[in-house]
Amino acid sequence: MRIDILTLFPEMFRGPFDASIVARAREQGLFQIELHNFRDWTTDKHHHVDDDPYGGGAGMVMKPEPLFAAVEAVQDQAEPPGRVIMLTPQGRLLNQGIVEELAGQPRLLLVCGRYEGFDERIREHLADDEISIGDYVLSGGEPAAIVLVEALVRRIPGALGNEESLDEESHTQGLLEYPHYTRPAEFRGWSVPDILLSGDHPEIEKWRRRQSLLRTARRRPDLLSRALQNGAVSDEDRRWLEEELETNLSDLM
Ligand code: 6GU
Description:
Elements: E1 2-7, H1 11-17, H2 20-27, E2 32-37, E3 50-51, E4 61-62, H3 64-75, E5 83-93, H4 96-103, E6 107-112, E7 117-118, H5 120-125, E8 129-132, H6 142-153, H7 164-168, E9 186-187, E10 190-191, H8 201-219, H9 221-230, H10 235-245
Parallel strand pairs: 1-2, 1-6, 4-7, 5-6, 5-8
Antiparallel strand pairs: 3-4, 9-10
Bound molecules: 6-chloroguanine.
């Protein structure tokens, strides 16, 4: 996979992309990231990328010309052309389903905005998609692009080195993950649940599954509701959970 990132602050990416899993995946040639400063595509003397809003008001708006020129030039650097994704607070809310969808693409172009916003013609005629990472405001799309790349790299075969941990992760199966413990078995008087020390693997699996359901029910009833409707929760699991929570879950379905 190739990811081109268009930004006014390429230096914001150097730390995150030069460390840990992303760095290793790049070194192994599992995927390629190219950073581009779209100020390089301005043609005026002062290299302006933004201007006052028509109709007045506070804040500056990203001009269309440098972004169109940059996207067109970067698309021509490789085949096939990439899906153009703007990172803005108005986009589709990122979730694991969207990550899976994008991970299947051979190439992506991420466009990071700054200032008050993009000229609407960029949104209408240049972007294929628009993504947000949550309902809060950042000063620019760069941290969101880093989040998206982190999530995508985890889905590239070979990038993690330990592939089975992928399928048990929170959100991969629509549920939160079960609690984890490691040595020591007792720490400051707090013990690890006995079942995990029992060596009874079928019972451990059952305990983990149930902890995962319970945790999802308590913390993220929205996710549990979806899992119940998907058929991702067996009747037996559901009965157990209803007893544990002393509620009827049919109102979540
Ligand atoms: Cl992608 N950009 C900005 N500026 N703010 C955000 C965001 C993106 N996602 C959530 N807030």
